[in-house]
What we know:
InterPro entries: T2SS_E_N_sf (IPR037257), T2SS_GspE_N (IPR007831). This is Pilus assembly protein PilB. It holds the Pfam family MshEN. Residues 60-144 form the Type II secretion system protein GspE N-terminal domain. With 145 residues, this protein is an alpha/beta fold. The chain has two domains: 3-46, no CATH class; 63-142, GMP Synthetase, Chain A, domain 3 (2-Layer Sandwich). Helix content is 53%, strand content 14%. The chain contains eight helices and four strands; from the N terminus they run ααααβααββαβα. It has a four-stranded mixed beta sheet with strand order 1-4-3-2. A hairpin with a 3-residue loop joins β2 (89-95) and β3.
Amino acid sequence: MDTDVALDVFINNGMMDTSVSKDVKEEMANSGKELWETLIDFGVISSPEDFWNIIATEVGAQYISLADFAPPEDVIAKLTPAQARMHGAFPIEYRSGEGLYVCLEDPLNPQTVDDLRAATGYDIYLYVAADYEVRARITEFYGGA
């Protein structure tokens, strides 16, 4: 996820200003922590779920946890392993006549939705989950790169 794009979400929602944003980026560079971890350290949010809920709201999607989630095999089969890994996409559900619902490692990148739609032929809709959960499920269900 592009750090600047994600930080803009928090700035635009009045949760911090640009000076805090600069401090957050500097701290991330020094500590090696993820953005959500650094935002917790700075008191902008109180949990990882807060971060992903705000991102979900930004993209008009629902936040879900993938911690204990396993979609049916027919849903997994809607994406090839190469598509899942290349697009950082994990399928959640398929609704006939509507489309494929996925979680993306980077839900703030609209190009990924367009690319996935072109690659699969499905209309693509988003749920948002923590990027580390999306990566873990892709590896679990589709194998590593």
